[in-house]
Design a protein that fits this description.
This protein has 144 residues and is α+β, with helices and mostly antiparallel strands. The protein has three helices and nine strands. The protein has helices spanning 2-7, 61-71, 126-135, and strands at residues 14-18, 23-28, 31-36, 58-59, 86-91, 96-101, 106-111, 120-125, 142-143. The strands form three sheets. Strands 7-6-5-8 form a four-stranded antiparallel β-sheet. Strand 2 (23-28) and strand 3 form a beta hairpin. The chain is elongated.
């Protein structure tokens, strides 16, 4: 679906969905495209972050870019092991650690010049890491 949507230029798109047949018609000024959808009930609900588990921290864009650049090559493209398809980032009051592995390569990159107020960790997906590499050279702060 994403590959199809990339072919449309930056223009208004109209999605007509028939809930009985799950048919989806995507219309633009250049034409129409039809796909078959699936009922959302057949898929698990997305997890919700609990307010007491939420944690925010700011990291310097140069530190984030260095961590992504040094570890992204070791992420896996294996859909069966989604945890290996990203960069594990762990923030603590002492340091920030970036870890990636594809089961053949294992990379750990630590920075002691960047810290968080409390312990937190998350997995940055490979796709998000690639996108971040493109925007981080602009030296904007990166909010996690």
């Amino acid at each position: 679906m994403l590959d199809t949507l990339k072919e449309f230029s930056a223009q208004p798109l109209t999605f007509d969905i028939n809930p009985d047949t799950m048919a989806v018609e995507i219309s633009s000024e250049n034409g129409k495209f039809n796909v078959v959808g699936q009922n959302g009930i057949d898929f698990p609900a997305l997890p919700v972050i609990k307010k007491d588990k939420k944690f925010d921290f700011t990291i310097n864009a140069e530190v984030m870019l260095a961590g992504i650049t040094k570890t992204l090559f070791a992420t896996a493209d294996d859909e069966l092991r989604p945890v290996m398809g990203g960069i594990f980032i762990e923030a603590s009051p002492e340091k920030i650690t970036f870890v990636a592995s594809d089961a053949h390569k294992l990379v750990r990159y630590q920075r002691t010049d960047a810290k968080a107020e409390d312990n937190a960790s998350f997995i940055l997906s490979q796709e998000t890491g690639i996108a971040a590499q493109n925007i981080l050279p602009e030296r904007r702060p990166f909010y996690c």
